[in-house]
Design brief:
Blueprint (H helix, E strand, L loop, with lengths): L6 H10 L3 E5 L3 H14 L3 E6 H7 L2 H14 L6 E8 L1 H10 L3 E4 L6 H17 L3 E6 L4 E3 L2 E3 L6 H8 L5 E4 L17 H15 L5 E3 L7 H9 L2 E6 L1 H16 L11 H4 L1 H18 L6
Helix pairs in contact: 2-4, 2-12, 5-6, 7-8, 10-12
The structure holds 1,3-dihydroxyacetonephosphate (13P).
The site of 1,3-dihydroxyacetonephosphate has 14 residues, from strand 3, strand 10 and helix 10.
Length: 293
């Protein structure tokens, strides 16, 4: 059993300048694909589940038990955290009760004072259950599960105050967006990241791990620079979705699905999940968390 909270693995990554992969899952086979890649690459990983995916998969307990049971059945031997991605206040509490080992409380759409108070409340609850906590300042642009953000750059003072609530890692808007990046995207605001990362680390007297959301489609060199500046967890969702879609599409367009018993969902969906594994492997190459178990 290698399910644990994410604090130590992300702190190690921050200190040694690589990033932990946080891969979003959507169903049974997706979860298996992520675990398989984590094991093959010996890459500590967060199994990230959005509020929408929790609902889709049948609830917090179903998800927590699924990941735990697969971890055991697949003899996973690398650290894995069961992480709520962009949780509401109530969602984060439910996740802690259900056995998640890490939660993100996303109060970035609230006034700062309320975001800080609610985050502090989640931190207090989470600590009792040995659960790690992520919170967000600024906002991530784009749309995810119906939540639309404008992409507000995180003010340094807000980030300092949030870090002081006792969270374990901090998501900060630095020009990153969820989903596919538009042609005219300006890139990550790396100077701002550098300033923010130094300021929050000084404020809490240890290197604060920064989380980069919207990891899909960010050029490799920008991700590598962001890691040098304090990013220690990168979230990837859309890239796996696109890979899955393309894998199935190629399969159908090649008419291979019409051969034999390939209508069996276990065969029909396989090219999609193989494509996910390939996409996630490529991200691990960039994040540098292979062989860090
Ligand atoms: P992408 O879908 O853009 O990879 O973003 C994932 C994410 O940040 C999840 O929180």
């Amino acid at each position: 059993m290698t399910i644990m909270n994410a604090k130590q693995m992300i702190q190690n990554a921050r200190e040694q300048q690589y990033a932990i992969s946080a891969f979003n899952t959507n169903n049974l086979e997706w979860t298996q694909a992520i675990l398989r890649v984590a094991k093959e690459r010996q890459a500590p990983t967060l199994m990230a589940i959005s509020m929408g995916a929790v609902k889709y998969m049948g609830g917090f307990k179903v998800v927590a038990n699924l990941v735990r049971n697969l971890d055991e059945a697949m003899e996973i031997d690398v650290p894995i955290a069961i992480h709520l991605d962009h949780g509401t206040f109530e969602g984060a509490k439910e996740a802690i009760d259900a056995g998640f080992t890490s939660v993100m409380f996303d109060g970035s759409n609230l006034p700062l004072a309320e975001n800080l108070t609610k985050t502090a409340e989640i931190v207090e609850l989470a600590k009792k259950s040995n659960v790690s906590v992520e919170a967000e300042v600024g906002s991530i642009g784009g749309e995810e599960d119906g939540v639309v953000g404008d992409g507000e750059i995180a003010p340094i003072d807000d980030a300092i105050q949030m870090a002081q609530t006792g969270i374990d890692f901090l998501a900060a808007g630095i020009g990153n967006i969820h989903g596919q990046y538009p042609e005219n995207w300006n890139g990550l605001h790396l100077d701002h990241l550098s300033e923010l990362s130094t300021a929050v680390s000084n404020a809490v007297n240890h290197p604060m791990p920064i989380v980069l959301h919207g990891g899909s489609g960010i050029p490799d060199d920008q991700i590598k620079q962001a890691i040098q500046l304090g990013v220690a967890k990168v979230n990837v969702n859309t890239e796996a979705q696109l890979a899955f879609h393309q894998g199935i599409r190629d399969y159908v367009l090649s008419n291979k699905d019409l051969e034999g018993k390939n209508y069996d969902p276990r065969k029909f969906l396989k090219p999609g999940f193989s494509a996910i594994e390939q996409a996630l492997n490529e991200r691990i190459d960039v994040f540098g968390n292979a062989n860090k178990a």
